[in-house]
Specification:
Blueprint lengths: L5 E4 L26 H13 L4 E4 L11 H4 L4 H9 L6 E7 L5 H14 L4 E6 L6 H4 L8 H19 L27 E2 L4 E2 L14 E4 L4 H10 L2 E4 L4 H17 L8 E6 L2 E2 L3 H15 L2 H10 L27 H14 L3 H8 L8 E2 L1 H13 L5 E4 L4 H10 L1 H6 L12 H5 L7 H9 L2
Parallel strand pairs: 1-2, 1-12, 2-3, 3-4, 4-7, 7-8, 8-9, 9-12, 10-11
Antiparallel strand pairs: 5-6
Helix pairs in contact: 3-4, 4-6, 6-7, 7-8, 10-12
């Protein structure tokens, strides 16, 4: 099979990080982030265009400075369960924290979504970026990096063990013999680890794709190592072609070092295409979008998230950047460390750091349909990505991409012209994991 591009859709609602002005757009319903009809419309449009997945992000902490979408939005698994009943092929990937959820609860919820959707569920494993989440769960402090990533690894391992509780032939449902369950095909987990003790079994059988697909998004050393060990899909930041290529090569190398097939981990970079009739019109629209969203207050709020939702408004904007490096360790450490290093090296003020952290950066995926398709093809061939996680400000802009760019990608043989499968794994080209107990029995001949 030739290598094919994968596309996912990441709906914004009324505006996520960096889109503080999106809710003002007259084309955006002010209740979009809590209107299930909005998500169903987005998912159906993406499915009609043969996208691989709908991706829903989440966080569990806010304050009044957060962007509009964060202030009022639906819980991912509830949302995706509703979308599942209105779609047939598109994957449904939800974000859930391994830091603030038990693995048994997560395993059951994602397995339920997998059954509701007929094998289209994916779990984006996060360790919780917002330090304030701790207080919503009765804790005084956010866990440190090592603990959070240790919990994440063990949480995935436990969930996968629970998803194998039943072998595929566990339910003969033989009315003549009066046998519904073959008890020899039911297995307790009896897990005892550093962070969790979980007896099992899970009271839910395997889905048509065996297990939900594991996604992860991390750029730190801990995040990259976790991805290489357990992820089957990655949401990567992108950046320049060179940076994306280095990240792609690093993850594939780490995956192989852990004894896994590098082709069994699909790397999606973030992309916010702007498509118009000409390159000039698209670039003009890109700049307009930045001006719609750009404000000093918004930049300060976005900067604060890297430091545990720190309130920078308490400081003099034109004084040297404050010494708050200690706050980065339990927040967005990688991004925060880069900001601190630059501020110290260049003797920047708080105002300068805030504005530079949210300064205008031209996206490579902007232009006419042909220009955008050319860029995607160049990046794909350069070994920077397996797919793109696409974010569009409005439904109209999604339509421009679907009608203009997707047909060009299809004509070039880069993107599918029909779904390969009814499951997320099948469409991503990922293998169905064998049940560990069935495999063990076949190995021993029992």
């Amino acid at each position: 099979m030739p290598r094919r591009l994968h596309l996912a859709l990441h709906p914004y609602g009324v505006g996520g990080p960096g889109q503080h002005g999106l809710w003002k757009d007259p084309r955006v319903a002010k209740n979009a982030s809590i209107d299930i009809r909005y998500y169903i419309q987005q998912a159906q449009a993406a499915e009609e265009a043969l996208f691989d997945a709908l991706f829903i992000v989440d966080s569990q902490f806010i304050n009044a400075t957060y962007p509009a979408h964060y202030l009022n939005r639906l819980e991912p698994l509830t949302l995706l369960s509703a979308v599942a009943t209105h779609t047939r092929h598109i994957g449904l990937v939800g974000t859930a924290s391994s830091t603030y959820n038990s693995p048994f609860n997560l395993a059951r919820r994602f397995a339920s979504l997998d059954h509701i959707s007929g094998g289209r569920a994916g779990w984006n494993v996060v360790t919780s970026f917002d330090t304030g989440t701790a207080r919503n769960y009765g804790l005084d402090e956010h866990l440190d990096y090592a603990t959070r990533y240790g919990r994440a690894l063990e949480s995935v391992q436990v969930a996968r063990g629970l998803w194998d509780s039943y072998e595929d032939d566990a339910f003969p449902a033989d009315t003549e013999r009066g046998v519904f369950l073959d008890p020899d095909r039911l297995h307790a987990l009896d897990h005892r680890g550093e962070h969790f003790q979980v007896a099992g079994p899970l009271n839910l059988s395997r889905s048509p794709q065996g297990q939900p697909v594991i996604f992860q998004a991390g750029v730190s050393e801990e995040g990259r190592d976790l991805a290489a060990r357990v992820a089957e899909g990655i949401y990567a930041p992108g950046g320049t072609l060179e940076a994306a290529r280095d990240y792609y090569a690093d993850i594939k190398k780490r995956t192989a070092a852990h004894g896994r097939d590098p082709d069994h981990i699909k790397i999606f970079i973030h992309g916010g295409p702007v498509v118009a009739a000409t390159d000039e019109l698209a670039r003009r629209r890109e700049r307009e979008i930045f001006e719609e969203d750009n404000s000093l207050d918004g930049s300060l709020a976005l900067l604060g998230r890297s430091f545990g939702a720190y309130d920078f408004s308490r400081h003099d904007l034109d004084a040297p950047f404050p010494d708050i490096a200690h706050l980065a360790e339990k927040g967005g450490r990688t991004a925060a460390a880069k900001l601190i290093e630059r501020a110290r090296a260049e003797h920047l003020t708080l105002r300068q750091v805030a504005l530079s952290a949210n300064e205008f950066r031209r996206s490579p995926f902007v232009g006419s349909p042909t220009t955008v398709a050319d860029t995607i093809e160049r990046w794909f061939d350069a070994g920077t990505l397996d797919g793109i996680n696409l974010a569009f400000r409005t439904h109209d802009e999604l339509t421009l991409f679907v009608d203009g760019v997707v047909p060009l990608l299809q004509k070039r043989g880069l993107f599918r012209t029909a779904y390969e499968s009814d499951t997320l794994r099948g469409n991503l080209g990922l293998p169905v994991p064998g049940n560990r107990h069935t495999l063990a029995r076949r190995t021993t001949g029992a």
